[in-house]
Amino acid sequence: MSWFRITLHRSAIGLPERTRGVLAALGLRRRSQVVFHPVSPQFAGMIMKVKELVRVEEVARPLSRAEVKAERTPERGFWLERRGTGGLEAGKEGEKVGEL
Amino acid sequence: MFGAFRFTNPLSGGLLWKIPWRLSRFQKYRHRKRLQAVDNVVATVDAALAKQGETLKQLERWKAEMPTEAEMLPRDKYTMFDRKAKRYRKGIHKLPKWTRVSQRLNPPGY
């Protein structure tokens, strides 16, 4: 089963109530928001109604909110290398120390 | 006749909107990109449904009737029919919300 990954790219300000209703039904509230819906004629019809406002991809599984956020978060720009004990070997590879 | 009381169109009262009669080449470029984005959405939805063996009346109708960006004539891309305009054509940017609506077809013969 595959999913639509729908991103609201253009705002619906000033567009008809029907159009904004479709966005609400898709669960899109703000620009750049991402929602996932299963591939089915029902959701395809809703996407067709707002095709000028959204970007759509087909993905294998829906991402969680944390995963979507992680995609957007840039690199931290620095790495913490292990200190001391192992001498030079410990930090030689510029090894990343996860989530301190 | 001169200075602050000269009779020019913007000063002789009322609201005068200065919308250029044609699009700049950068506007045309962004407009093409928007048309392509819509084509992409339709193609993605169509491919995803086709994989499941489903189809959609609305989608079939769009594919049958609407030209894609590459198939459209420049004249249909950047202008649209208007019965009140000289030579029955006006710039597509005169259409309200023109960046967020699909206006691709015009009456045959115009």
Automatic annotation (TrEMBL), chain A:
Residues 4-54 form the Large ribosomal subunit protein uL30-like ferredoxin-like fold domain. Coiled coil: none annotated. It is found in: Mitochondrion. InterPro entries: Ribo_uL30_ferredoxin-like_sf, Ribosomal_uL30_bac-type, Ribosomal_uL30_CS, Ribosomal_uL30_ferredoxin-like. GO terms for biological process: translation. Its main location: mitochondrion. Keywords: Mitochondrion, Ribonucleoprotein, Ribosomal protein. GO terms for molecular function: structural constituent of ribosome. GO terms for cellular component: large ribosomal subunit; mitochondrion. The keyword Ribosomal protein applies. Residues 81-100 are annotated as: Disordered. Belongs to the universal ribosomal protein uL30 family. NCBIfam families: rpmD_bact. Component of the mitochondrial ribosome (mitoribosome), a dedicated translation machinery responsible for the synthesis of mitochondrial genome-encoded proteins, including at least some of the essential transmembrane subunits of the mitochondrial respiratory chain. The mitoribosomes are attached to the mitochondrial inner membrane and translation products are cotranslationally integrated into the membrane. PANTHER family: LARGE RIBOSOMAL SUBUNIT PROTEIN UL30M (PTHR15892:SF2), MITOCHONDRIAL RIBOSOMAL PROTEIN L30 (PTHR15892). This is Large ribosomal subunit protein uL30m. It comes from Echria macrotheca.
TrEMBL record, chain B:
Keywords: Mitochondrion, Ribonucleoprotein, Ribosomal protein. The keyword Hydrolase does not apply. It is found in: Mitochondrion. Pfam families: L31. GO terms for cellular component: mitochondrial large ribosomal subunit. One of its GO terms (molecular function) is structural constituent of ribosome. InterPro entries: Ribosomal_mL60. One of its GO terms (biological process) is mitochondrial translation. Component of the mitochondrial large ribosomal subunit. PANTHER family: 54S RIBOSOMAL PROTEIN L31, MITOCHONDRIAL, LARGE RIBOSOMAL SUBUNIT PROTEIN ML60. This is Large ribosomal subunit protein mL60. It comes from Echria macrotheca. The lineage of its organism: Eukaryota, Fungi, Dikarya, Ascomycota, Pezizomycotina.
